[in-house]
Design brief:
The chain is mainly alpha-helical. It contains 10 helices and 2 strands; from the N terminus they run H-H-H-E-E-H-H-H-H-H-H-H. A hairpin with a 2-residue loop joins strand 1 and strand 2.
């Protein structure tokens, strides 16, 4: 006779697993587009268009977009999702947070850098130099992101990593407004060189000083260009 006490083993809910994975994929892709400047302040992200692109229903797209809203990357409107418009006070506050967090975090990263990350930093710096020489705005933006991702990958505190990444990404309006300016690109490349030297020397004090100057210069350039002083 069959054992009536045998336990029923439930199989995993594979559909839910696929849904979660798809939502994460869509979230990562849209966030990457925002970071690269492929979505402008006047663009609208429509859930049905993203669903068509990924050949899926609108549900995982909505979940990904709402996550980006919760993290401050987008805001929802009656006509889709758009990037938030930053006021001058917003920009000042973002840079204040970055000055409090990034110099110390970058300095701490010097203890955890390895040869692979050193090479990633060097490649990003060289890419930035070439982009500046050719006035290649898109390549400059990509190099800036790659450089930050490299040193941030050596920060041991994952919550600190995430916080810094988010506030840096929120300054996308600043990045788009400054990194397309040739004079600013030169300042950025010079700042990267100071940081790179400090990282390669494993000199946390030098990195702290260079990162503070890097962030301060970025803020100053943004408001100078905004006011038409340059």
């Amino acid at each position: 006779m069959p054992d009536s006490t045998a336990k029923v083993v439930k199989l995993p809910r594979r559909t839910a697993l696929r849904q979660t994975t798809l939502t994460e994929t869509i979230y990562t892709e849209i966030r990457a587009r925002l970071r690269r400047g492929e979505v402008g302040p006047d663009d609208r992200i429509l859930d049905y268009e993203i669903a068509d692109e990924f050949d899926c229903t609108r549900m995982p797209v909505r979940q990904a977009l709402l996550r980006l809203v919760n993290e401050g990357y987008l805001i929802g409107t009656t006509r889709g999702f758009v990037m938030p418009t930053l006021t001058s006070d917003d920009v000042h506050e973002i840079f204040e947070v970055r000055r409090l967090l990034e110099p110390a975090a970058a300095a701490s990263a010097t203890a955890s850098l390895d040869r692979q990350l050193d090479e990633a930093l060097k490649r990003a710096y060289q890419q930035a130099r070439k982009a500046c020489d050719k006035t290649d705005n898109e390549a400059m933006i990509e190099a800036n992101i790659a450089f930050r991702d490299a040193w941030l990958g050596a920060v041991q505190n994952t919550r600190l990593q995430d916080t810094i990444q988010r506030f840096a990404d929120h300054a996308q309006q600043v990045r788009l407004g400054t990194l397309r300016d040739q004079a600013t690109q030169k300042i950025v490349v010079d700042g990267m060189k100071e940081l790179l030297d400090g990282f390669l020397e494993r000199n946390p004090k030098k990195v702290n000083t260079a990162m503070t100057a890097f962030i301060t210069h970025a803020e100053q350039r943004y408001f100078a260009l905004l006011s038409g002083q340059d």
